[in-house]
Design a protein that fits this description.
By secondary structure, this protein is α/β, with parallel strands linked by helices. Helix content is about 35%, strand content about 20%. The chain has a five-stranded mixed sheet, covered by helices on one side. A three-stranded mixed sheet has the order 2-5-6. The two termini are about 35 Å apart.
């Protein structure tokens, strides 16, 4: 039986006993005892339809181990989340760099694209890896934050079913230079990172920082 079929079968069995999926083992046993007495053919002029359906449901739940004392719910267990870190493809990194090259200049007086055709500045950043923990994303950027205005280009559609990777440029101000972490506001996360629950960006990130991500929590 496939997992989805098993979940549906449990729900149907609980419903046959008049219970929902929050029912615990005591609830299941009590419901069966009540039905077994009230719906027994001896009390129904020989009609065993309700009794047989309830007995089949109870036997199924018993085989599933849901009638054992200590079982608090008939709902399936939630799978444990696993962390993973993936290296970005060179095409994704190039797409991020290209987007920075064609984005607006840092200068607030600029009315056009970045006039420097040679590439990005020290205050422009591109990640080389991303960590996943469920719907929580952590981007690892090898370059340090610069004091003042910074820009980082990020592939954003890891959790979406998009055919091609989408990339966005985020801008922020920093009072310091060096390693650091930026937490993307929820409003921007919801708008620019489809499927993500939270987004963090770690700067001046090395292999040790990635290893710490694996080991933490």
């Amino acid at each position: 039986m496939e997992p989805v079929e098993k979940i549906n079968a449990r729900a149907d069995a609980l419903a046959a006993l008049g219970l929902d999926q929050t029912a615990g083992s005591d609830d299941i046993r009590d419901a069966w005892r009540h039905i077994a007495f009230r719906a027994h053919p001896d009390h129904r002029n020989g009609d065993c339809t309700h009794f047989a359906r309830a007995k089949e449901a109870y036997d199924f739940l018993r085989r599933e181990g849901l009638t054992t004392k200590g079982k608090t719910t008939g709902a399936p267990r939630r799978p444990k989340l696993r962390k993973r870190v993936i290296e970005l493809e060179s095409t994704d990194i190039d797409a991020c760099r290209s987007l920075l090259n064609n984005a607006l200049s840092h200068s607030p007086d600029s009315n056009g694209p970045n006039p420097d055709p040679q590439g990005t500045t020290d205050a422009d950043h591109v990640p080389d890896a991303v960590g996943f923990y469920g719907r929580h994303l952590t981007y690892f950027v090898p370059t340090p934050v610069q004091e003042g205005a910074n820009r980082v280009a990020l592939p954003t559609s890891f959790l979406a079913s998009a055919r091609r990777m989408e990339t966005e440029v985020l801008s922020f101000q920093s009072n310091d230079t060096g390693a650091g972490e930026v937490v993307v506001p929820e409003t921007i996360t919801a708008r620019k990172f489809p499927g993500a629950k939270s987004v963090r960006i770690k700067f001046d990130a090395d292999q040790q920082m990635r290893d710490d991500f694996w080991l933490a929590g």
